User: Fold these one by one.
Assistant:
Number 1:
Amino acid sequence: MQTKYRNRLAFARLAVYRTIPPKEMSLRICVVQFMHVEALLRVYLMTERTNEQWVADLTADHTVEQAEALEDLRLRLQRGIFYYLRRERSDLSSRSHTNLQQMAEDFTQEATLRIIKNIHSFRGDSRFTTWATKVAVRVAISELRRARYRDFSLEEVTADGEMMPDLNVLFPAGQPTGPERSAEQSEVLEKIRAAIQNALTERQRTALEAVGLRGVPLEIVAEQMNTNRNALYKLLHDARVKLRAALEQEGISVSYIHDLFR
Amino acid sequence: MAFNQLLAMVEAIFSAHEEELDCEGCDQEMPHLVEIIEAGEDPTLLLPAVQEHLNHCRDCREEFEALLVIVRAEDQGVLNQNGNGTGGS
Ligand SMILES: [Zn+2]
């Protein structure tokens, strides 16, 4: 609960308590017990702002309400992000507690700015805090991706121009596939290769290789292709639709490939 | 490329639909979806398009899973007030 209200509440309780004469011991005890229950209820039921209150407080520029809401939001986001960094990110397990706290603080600061800037895009179909946490998660994960792929170069990854594997690569020496089956496998791989070559644009091929085969995040690939993540997703989606049509024409299906390469 | 990657790619190709939710659409629906799951409802019935996007988009899936973890910890009171949330370590 906000400090201001907590103090006012304490004063109000004391004032009520003092109106009861000291000789009415049992009444005093009764009132104190009641206040205790009421305080607990407040903690459980009323600590949360409603969505409307969050938005109203955060946008009430230069007011105490805004300062308090910002502080409450900051604490909440920071502990959530810290929890995520510490508990879910094995890649950060070597970082110190202080270091992770600092990261959580930085991400939260950036996220808070973004939340205030985009607060009007909050549609109210979830709790405000869930929406705000989503913004913070996105900031944190984006930053972590950028740090991890700092030295990544899309050109290097796609330089060899050879996307589809050889059977020798797919099945390292000595796999028990008969000559007939092996010929059929080669044929299917060749058809997939041809579909990728003929049905897709250069950009689609690059994106498919980096994202689909190498597992590079869309966000990183998008940056290097001078586009944004949403547009890249659409580009890849378009590529999948085209490949599906091309492969279906060749009579290839998932179950067929599954059986053939099993 | 390993066989699993080939199969994953082929599966992604064959599950392509003409109309799919994009990353921005997914981003908007994410808070709602997380709360549906937290409430124990079946997300595949309520928001199938979002679920489908998450199957195809690793970036969104990573963010979605992180959000779910944090919201769940908040709801279960795992995160304490001083911001540690380390579960008592
Ligand atoms: Zn996405």
Number 2:
Amino acid sequence: MSDNHAESIVALLNVSKGFMRDKLEIPVLTNTTLHIPKGDFVAVMGPSGSGKSTLLNLCAGLDRPTTGKVIVNGQDLGELSEARLSKWRSENLGFIFQMYNLMPVLSAQENVELPLMLTPLSRAERRKHAEASLRIVGLSDRADHYPRQLSGGQEQRVAIARALANDPVLLLADEPTGNLDATSAQEVLDLLESLNEQFGVTIIMVTHDPKAARRAKRLLHLEKGSFVQADIEALETSLRGVAR
Amino acid sequence: MKYLPLILRNVTRNKIRSIFTGSSIAVSLFLVVMLYSFLSVQDANNEASKVHNRIIAMNVQGLTGDVPIAYVDRIRKIEGVRYAVPYSWYGGMYKDDKITFGQFGTDANSIMNVLEEYKLAPEQLAAWKADKTGCVVGSILARNKGWKLGDKVPLKGDIYPVNLEFTVRGIYEGSSSTDREMLWFHFSYLDDSLKEINAPTAGNAGIVMLNAESADIMPDLMKKIDSTFASSDAPVRAMTEKQFQQSFMEMMGNVRGFIRYTSIAVVVALLCVAANTMAMALRERTREIALFKAIGFPQSTILGLFLSEAVAIGLLGGVFGALGAKLLFEVVDFSKWVPGLGWLYVPWSTALAGVALATAIGLVSGIYPAWRAANVSVVEGLRKIV
Ligand SMILES: Nc1ncnc2c1ncn2[C@@H]1O[C@H](COP(=O)(O)OP(=O)(O)OP(=O)(O)O)[C@@H](O)[C@H]1O
Ligand SMILES: [Mg+2]
């Protein structure tokens, strides 16, 4: 981990975040500092309610920290208005969710084109980009299918293609395999791994599944408001222990 | 406009709901457009008849009073009067008809000069003049009743204690703004029948209809007519044809106000229906909207997408309802079932105003839901499990 945040794609500097409930502030992140270098593939684990999704929201500028700074790809998100943040997200980020969140009225191809609607690309160019994205996730033959005609694993791969369409520097994935069976989960993880290795996309992936976490380069454990650098080797051993 | 396919698919995604909302708008618009056509066509026809400089003289007591037939000749002698005719509403019943139609006892020698916009072939006019029991009927009436020249038309007196049987001697024509559902007969035929039974109403015309030489002299002419009979047993009041039509409308109550308030109520009801549809769409799609915003769609685009969807539903309803009304009136002749509606049609201006109204209803109903959609919190929206 580098201390120079200029090299980091994501830098959280003394970030605290809490939510008000019944006039009481519930702290979620407390004075956290975190650097994620370009090209990293980080798995974030932690108990339910520990603030994993909150972390992703902060990195995406969907939510603002109570105190501290969030700097992504050299941009201090606190300096941007809501409108500029929208535009910034469309140019820099890709999202993958547990629930896929595809538009049911749009075909796979059209779902992938969605983020490209915000670019000046022509119809034909949008189509070409979307086709390329679908090829990467291996679903070229399903371009005209609607979400209801796809399996869960295929839906998630379309969602990944959508996240890739705008060439993001950072991919944020919140439990991307949480709804999938083992085989589909493997396919999705293979895909994320190759995106990271071949295309150098930085990935932050929240997961509850140790098998998924093992595919990442690094594991962060979130507990009681701060991160603990966890050891994948230790995780592996404990997993093997469980298997035995 | 690259979002048009998305908007249309959102409109059709919940087909049942869109169809119900669209049909509510369509059916209501159909009615509103019809009612307004009734007003606007009547106005247009009244306006169009102004060029004929016609004046109606009736008893000061109104339509219930009579005008002695001798007044017709006296009016003819007043300076500035071109032609004058008696015009007596007979109101007889034909066969099993439930509703009567316009039957008027008049003067065959002058009626075509007073109602100069109506066309009757000269040989038919001559045949009518030559037959004391002859009559002339409008082309729509003739078609609806299946009457041809030479057919007998027996009418049972309802207001008058005499039955009359006519022979069709002519069929008159006119432009679309004219009333082609009337029957004209010789006033003398009715009057002689009344004299035969010594009816006290004999010798009286309903009203006298005349035309003036020019529009400028009409106010003076009306005053002159009023003063001519002011001190007689049956004083009369002269008014322009347009005033006469309006007083006729007023007899049916405040029809205009009624139509206007009904339409406003309909529009308000439609606003609620359409707004509810959009509110339901908003509730169902909170997650999707959150996703759109997460991906980077600006508020303005989300606002626009929602508004466009509401406008599209309104527009579709309007097109079906308003243009449907127009089309229906072109294709179907309602005078067959409702006598006296032969003149009614839906003008383009009224139909298009209907479409515009429906579109505006869509737009207004969409404003609040669209504003709510644009302000969905991404964080909350994505957490929501639908
Ligand atoms: N918008 C919000 N309003 C109030 N409290 C919130 C809000 N978002 C999150 N929280 C609270 O913050 C804490 C962290 O939530 P978060 O969703 O980040 O947890 P998580 O680690 O993603 O959990 P899970 O594994 O169940 O998804 C929880 O206690 C949650 O109740
Ligand atoms: Mg979570």
